Structures are given as C-alpha cells and as structure tokens.
User: Which sequence fits this backbone?
C-alpha cells in the first residue's frame, strides 16, 4: 500500500471545474475569447467613432468657415455727441479700447475663448465715403468709395513694402486736419496709390480731413481673422453700382471700394467724418478644445451674448448701445442640420451590424452547447440539476468572456481620443452579458426533458409550435410598424428612434422566419424528383439537407442580416455619389457653362464661334438670360415680383435638356410660328410658380428684350439655363433685341481651351465645368466619417457573415466527415464526396443568397421614402442648386456581389472539408466505439 492510498481524516481534494474544463478544451476557450474580444472592440469603437466624427466635423466647420462668419464681434457706435469732445476722443484711443477688449474677451464662451494673436480692435467708418481725387481709377466712370479704420497692432500683422509706417504727430483730436495712413499692396495696385498721395475725407462741418498715404504694407498672414474678418482691409473689390432703375439689358456699372488703414491713435480724427464711425472688437474663436458634446452649451452662451445676460455684461463695459454679432450660431445650426440628417442613417447601419454580431454570438453559443450535449446529458442523468449545470457553464464562460470584453474595451480607448471614454463601456458590457447568458441557457434548456436516443428534429418533418407562431406574428407586427414609422417620419429631421432604425433588421428577421417555414416544401419536391433519377449523389445531398436541424434559422438570419446591411450600406454610398452627380448637373446645366457678368452681359460672337469649333464639343445651346422681368398680377390679384426670361433655340435646347434630364419637353411646344403678326401669342414654358401667376390665357409682358404676348404651353420644374430661379422659356426668334449671354456646352471639352478663349474675349466671362463642380463636393469630416462607418459596416457585416457560414458548417462537420468515411468504404470517390457536400450546402446557401437579394431590395424600396441622403451628400456643396431629391435607391452591385459571395463561400468551405476528410482516410474516422 502506497502512501497515497492511505485515507486521512480530510476530504479528498476535487479538481476545480473551471480550470479542468479550460484545460480540456483550450481551443474552444481561445476561439470564444477572440470572438468576444473582437466584438467588444467593435462595439466600443463605434460610439467613439461617431462622437469623434461629430467633433472633427464641428471643428472643421468653424475652422473652414470664412472669418466673417466665425468671428465673434462686438460693435458700439461712436460716443454720444452730447459728451464733451475730450471724453469722446479718449473713448476711442487705443488704451480705452484695449481695456474694453480684455474685459470682453473674458466674457466670451469658455469652449471657444480666443487668444490675443488674431484678435483686433479699433475704430472704423461704417459707411464708405466717395473719393473724388483725379488719380483714383474709375473703370466705368463711377467714383470709388473708401472706408477708413484704425486696427490695433498693425505692425505686428503686416510688413512694410515701401514708404514709412503711418504715425501720429502730437495728440490727434476731432479737429485734426491731416493724418497718415497705409494701404495694402493689393489696394495700392488696384487704386494706383503711392506714398505721398492724399485723399480728402468729408467731415460733418463741411470741411475735409486729409489722409496722406505714407506706406505700402503686406499682410503677414492674409488668411488670418485679423485680415479676413473684413476682407476690404486686405483686398479691394470692384462692386456693382446699386441699380434703382427698371431692369435693362446692360449690367450695372462697377466702382472700386477699399479701406485705408490709419494708426490706432488717429481714431479721434474719424469722429468728425461723415462715414458713421463705430468702435469694434473682434475675437477669433479657438475650436481646438471644442467637442460635439459642447454644442448645446456653446449655443446657449452665444444666445446669451446676442440678447441675454451676456449682452448685458458686455454693454456694461462697451457702452449701452453695444451689439454682439457673430455667424457662429449659423455654423452651429448647419452642424445640427447635418448631424440630424446623418444620425439616423448611421444608427440604421449600427443596428444592422449589431444584430448580425448578436446572431453570430448566439450561433457560437449554440455550437458550444451542441458539442457538449452528450456530456451534459450524462451529468443530467446522474442527478445534475439545471441550475447546477447552468452555474458551472456560467462560471467557465465568464472566466473567458469577461476578461476578453475588458481587453476589447481597453484596446478601443486609444482610438478617437477626442471622444468621451464612458461612451465605450456599454458595448463590451452588453457583449459579455449576452455571451454569459447565451452559452449556459443554450446548453441547459434542451435538457429540461429527457430525449430519446436517436431522436431528430429534421427540417422536413418539423411542425412549428403555437408559441413560435405567436412570436413570429409579434415580430411581423413590429417590423411593419417600424417600416411604416420610418416611411412617415423619415430621417431628414432626426425623427427615427431605435425601433425605426431597426426596420431593416426586423424585415430580415421576418424573411428568415418565412424562408425557414417555406424551405421544406421545395426540398420535398426536389427529393421526389431526384429519387426517380439515377445516381445517389443528388438524392443523398437533398436527404442530408432535409435532415438538418429545424432550428437552423440563426445561420439563415445571420446571412440575411449581413446581406441586407451590405445592400443598405452600398446603396447609401451609391446614392450619395448619384446625388452629387445630379447636383453638379443641376448647378451647371450641361457639361460646361460659359456666361457673361451676372448672366446679363453679352458674349462676343467670336467666342461663340470658337466654342462651337472647340475639340470635344458635341453641342452648344445659346441662351439669352434677362433677369428681373416683371410679371403681371394673377387672376386672384396676387402679385409676383419678377422672373427670368430665357430666350433659346427650341431644337437645340430641348436636345440638351433631354441629355441632362433637366425639364424636358417637346421642341414643337416652344417653337413660335414664323408668319406670326405683331399681336400673335407666343408659347412659353414656365416654372410652376410663374405658370400659376400667368394662368391659362394670354398675358402681356414688358421685357428689355422686347414686348411679348405669351401663353403658358408647358410647365417644367427646372431648366438647364438657370438654376434655382423662376423662369420663362421662350423661342429666341421672337425677341426684338437678341443677344447671347450664356452658352451651354455638351460633350467633353477641354476646360483650359474654354478658359483661354474666354480670357481673350473679356475678363468678366466665367467658365464652369460640370466635372469641377462635382469634384467640389469634398466630404467634411462628419460626412467622411459617415461614409467610412458605412464602408466599415459592409466589411464587418461580410466578416460576420463569413463567420456565420463557418459556424454553420462546424456545427455539422463531424456528421459530414463520418458520412464521407462510411460512404467511401462503399466505393464513393473523392470527387463524388466533394460533389455531395457541395450539393448538400446549396439548399442552405441558395435560399440565403436569393432571400438576401430580395430582402435587401425590398428593404431599400420600403425605407427609401423615409431616408433622406441630402445632408450626407450635398451639405457644404459649393452651389446653391440641389437635385429634386436625394433618395435611397437599390445598388445592383451591393445586392448581387455579397449574395454570390455567400454561395461561393459556402460551396468552397464544403468542398474544402471534403478534400480534408479524404486525406485522413476512413479508418481514422471510423474508430471502434465511436458514437458517430
């Protein structure tokens, strides 16, 4: 007797259950841990990616906006005229303005509190004043108008190019008769200013303040807020003269306007001018610390500064009439619009991928439980309770799943650092809880009742229970309600909740349940047909498919959800591209557009000939655009201000409009009669508002191109000639004063050649190319992130679909391997074995592929009216025009390619298993005592 056989008074030591199980099946534990880790990582990264893209989009919107929109500006009119002159002058000097600047900066929102580098303050004239000096240029005979300003720290933000820095001599007062000033290089070049030139500024007393130009300067950072908040500080502009007369064919005349920069302490001299001087303090917001979660607080702070307690505090330091002005609230409104449009669409993708991942986790739990069925049945037969078995399984699952989920969470935290950390916690906790609940329940619940040996739950013979029927009907009701809700409310205004976002998943679930119910019927018919044919491969494959488990809805559901998600995501990406293509066409009207100033200046005949003869030009439609044509009052007395009259050649224009799909109509409907008299009625094609205004009868129009008596012959919502405008199309041959102001070009012209021809014909001729307009739709970080999320959703869904196929094959792999071994002893060849397993997988793969295409198409067709892609596709576009709709449409490639991939993958995996089994030999598989 050895020492080990001697009993002691202590109880014998039992091996820990969890440690024993993990040592017995380490491969299963590692595989489950890897799946949980990857799924937890994805669930933790997703909300962080969404918030990060929102943060980056917000910062980009503020940074990319023009300084005039994003700057925080405090304005105050000049000190009261009732104050003594000394107090008025002291209030506008640099020291007083800097004191107000420092106090006002402290009152700015903390999240975008600006630094001092780009901030500026000073005095400026609110109204430009006419300069009558003879040396100033007058391109079209109109005197230039100049403004004057005293910005702070001018020397720090500019470099002296010629002359000397402007300075003050002594103390400048309101009665000073001469001060020094400077202009930028761009202003000096446009106005012909040189050091020593003088400008007379009119004053309220009827005299003049002389401003002597002493220096020419260049901005150090021209795009900074200091120079860009008011572009005239940096660059002069040639602006049209206000047109107070009735509209005519000739465009308004232009004149130069610019700003002369004075020393800061020269501000008192501007108080006597007629330019309505005012004080200003500008602050450049710093969005580097701003996050998407700060938007509500920032919006509230801006509202307070514009008309609330914040404005009261600013007026306490800047004066009772001070006003706070910023376009930052409009930028936030645009951000909210885009975020509202994108959010529900992203949620649809997230719910779809999350559902696929959950189904795969459930399949994994089912595979683990199926592999341990005999073990658990034996323990149950020896007196093990369901609670005891469930507790042991929960312990061994938690030991693997919880650390894996924690590692997935930790791995996700370094990504997207601007997002809040706690957003990533919910996903891994849900994944770990799902796995810890699914594995014990899936393994224990089948052992509630004893099961006879050899009993099967075949797909061909199973009968759905009443409970399953009620559950399926419940899901059907939820799916119908979700689809109806999404179609009614849509995603454009953020009306979708979680149930609505789950509509594609619910539709896929219904399709999976329907396919599982219908699958026995074609299998029975096919089995009867094959039973009469020669050869055993077809019959055996269908028999094996019919003997698959009736509870095999999870693999089919995983594949359908993955295919639906891939189709939805691919269709979203294709819809975005299509909407941008359409927007570019609507904006340009053709492949290229050449137009004169304001679409009103005539184009030279030489240019028209050169464009028609240019390489790549297939067709040119000449258009005469006359804007501001007054319309007569309607029949109900309503009046409409004006519309654009478009003179076109009916044949050429209709062919081009048909090519671009912009307001097509028969050419004969617009063509005027050649032998018409002076009182003949001219047919016109009108936009809907203009048609409603003119009515059905003839109406008289007075236009700069000639008087017309018109009748509406057709209505089109858009025209290729002018985007986003009410219009009247008329045959150009009826116009008494004809001129070509716009050319619409179809074909593939060379943009460089068109621009070269336009430059030779005049500087005010613009050339727009449809391809360039399309390229101008550059994704903002939020749009780019959303497109990336959808691309990732398609990829992750495909990966989980692959895993679902593999898990489905692994579940029955031992049975198929044993079957091949037995059949090989009966003479089955390796080639026939591969055919057998390949054909056996088709009854599962083909319904999944066909059902995936059908469900994906049906889901997109059902949800398309409620999904608006305009925010995702067209936000931040360069043009004002937009297509009629940016709706979701099925993308054939996204529907068919993933479905074909499922079929190929399934057959390939089955064939690979047959090949591997043939290499091992039947003796290895048919061991003595093997229960298979």
Assistant:
């Amino acid at each position: 007797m050895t020492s080990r056989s001697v009993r002691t008074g202590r109880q014998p030591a039992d091996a820990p259950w969890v440690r024993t199980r993990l040592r017995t099946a380490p491969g299963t534990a590692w595989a489950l841990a890897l799946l949980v880790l990857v799924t937890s990582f994805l669930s933790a990264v997703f909300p962080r990616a969404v918030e990060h893209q929102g943060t980056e989009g917000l910062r980009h919107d503020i940074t990319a906006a023009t300084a005039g929109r994003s700057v925080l500006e405090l304005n105050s009119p000049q000190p009261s005229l009732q104050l003594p002159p000394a107090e008025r002058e002291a209030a506008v000097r640099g020291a007083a303005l800097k004191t107000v600047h420092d106090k006002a900066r402290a009152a700015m929102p903390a999240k975008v509190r600006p630094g001092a580098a780009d901030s500026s303050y000073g005095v400026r004239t609110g109204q430009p004043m006419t300069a009558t000096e003879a040396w100033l240029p007058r391109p079209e005979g109109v005197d230039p108008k100049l403004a004057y300003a005293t910005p702070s720290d001018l020397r720090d933000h500019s470099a002296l190019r010629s002359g000397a820095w402007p300075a003050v001599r002594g103390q400048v007062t309101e009665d000073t008769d001469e001060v020094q000033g400077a202009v930028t290089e761009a202003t000096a070049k446009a106005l012909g200013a040189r050091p020593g030139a003088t400008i007379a500024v009119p004053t309220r007393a009827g005299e003049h303040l002389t401003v002597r130009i002493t220096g020419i300067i260049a901005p150090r950072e021209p795009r900074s807020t200091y120079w860009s908040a008011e572009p005239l500080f940096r660059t002069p502009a040639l602006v049209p003269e206000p047109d107070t007369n009735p509209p005519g064919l000739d465009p308004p005349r232009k004149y130069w306007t610019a700003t002369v920069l004075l020393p800061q302490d020269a501000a008192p001299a501007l108080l006597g001018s007629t330019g309505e001087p005012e004080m200003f303090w500008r602050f450049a917001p710093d969005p580097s610390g701003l996050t998407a979660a700060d938007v509500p607080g920032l919006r509230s702070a801006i509202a307070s500064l514009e008309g609330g307690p914040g404005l009261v505090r600013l007026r306490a330091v800047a004066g009772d009439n001070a006003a706070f002005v910023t376009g930052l609230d409009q930028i936030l409104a645009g951000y909210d619009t885009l975020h509202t449009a994108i959010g529900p669409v992203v949620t649809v993708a997230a719910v779809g991928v999350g559902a696929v991942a959950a189904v795969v986790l459930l399949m994994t739990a089912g595979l683990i439980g199926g592999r341990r069925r005999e073990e658990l049945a034996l323990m149950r037969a020896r007196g093990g309770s369901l609670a005891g078995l469930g507790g042991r399984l929960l312990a061994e699952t938690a030991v693997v799943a919880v650390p894996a989920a924690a590692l997935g969470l930790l791995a996700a935290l370094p990504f997207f650092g601007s997002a809040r950390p706690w957003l990533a916690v919910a996903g891994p906790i849900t994944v770990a809880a799902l796995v810890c609940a699914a594995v014990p329940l899936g393994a224990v619940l089948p052992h509630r009742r004893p099961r006879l040996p050899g009993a099967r739950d075949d797909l061909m013979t199973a009968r759905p229970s009443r409970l399953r029927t009620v559950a399926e009907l419940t899901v059907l009701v939820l799916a119908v309600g979700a689809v109806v809700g999404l179609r009614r409310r849509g995603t454009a205004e953020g009306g979708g909740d979680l149930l609505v976002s789950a509509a594609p998943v619910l539709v896929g679930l219904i399709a999976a349940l329907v396919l599982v119910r219908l699958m026995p019927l074609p299998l029975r018919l096919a089995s009867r047909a094959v039973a009469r044919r020669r050869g055993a491969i077809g019959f055996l494959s269908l028999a094996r498919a019919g003997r698959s488990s009736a509870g095999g809805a999870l693999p089919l559901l995983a594949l359908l959800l993955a295919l639906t998600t891939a189709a939805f995501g691919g269709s979203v990406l294709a819809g975005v591209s299509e909407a941008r293509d359409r927007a570019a066409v609507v904006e340009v009207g053709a492949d290229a557009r050449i137009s004169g100033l304001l679409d009103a200046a005539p184009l030279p005949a030489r240019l028209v000939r050169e464009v028609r003869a240019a390489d790549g030009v297939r067709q040119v439609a000449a258009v005469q655009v006359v804007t501001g044509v007054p319309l007569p009052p309607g029949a109900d007395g309503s009046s409409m201000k004006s519309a654009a009259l478009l003179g076109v050649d009916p044949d050429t224009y209709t062919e081009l409009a048909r090519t671009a799909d912009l307001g097509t109509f028969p050419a004969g409907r617009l063509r005027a009669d050649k032998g018409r008299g002076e009182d003949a009625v001219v047919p016109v094609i009108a936009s809907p508002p203009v048609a409603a205004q003119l009515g059905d009868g003839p109406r008289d129009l007075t236009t700069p191109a000639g008087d017309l008596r018109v009748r509406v012959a057709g209505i089109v919502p858009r025209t290729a000639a002018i985007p986003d405008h009410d219009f009247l199309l008329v045959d150009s041959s009826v116009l008494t004063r004809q001129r070509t102001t716009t050319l619409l070009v179809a074909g593939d012209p060379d943009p460089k050649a068109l621009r070269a021809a336009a430059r030779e014909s005049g500087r005010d001729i613009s050339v727009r190319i449809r391809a360039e307009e399309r390229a101008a739709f550059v994704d903002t970080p939020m749009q780019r992130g959303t497109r990336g999320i959808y691309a990732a959703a398609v990829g992750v869904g495909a990966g989980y679909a692959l895993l679902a196929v593999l898990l489905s094959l692994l579940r029955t792999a031992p049975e198929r391997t044993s079957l091949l071994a037995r059949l090989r002893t009966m003479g089955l060849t390796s080639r026939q074995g591969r055919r057998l397993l390949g054909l056996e997988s088709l009854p599962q793969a083909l319904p999944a592929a066909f059902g995936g295409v059908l469900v994906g198409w049906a889901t997109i067709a059902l949800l398309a009216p409620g999904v608006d892609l305009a925010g995702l596709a067209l936000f931040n576009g360069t043009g004002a025009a937009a297509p009629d709709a940016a709706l979701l449409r099925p993308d054939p490639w996204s529907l068919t390619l993933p479905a074909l991939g499922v079929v190929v993958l399934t057959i390939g995996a089955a064939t690979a298993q047959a090949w591997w089994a043939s290499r091992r030999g039947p003796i290895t598989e048919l061991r003595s005592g093997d229960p298979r």
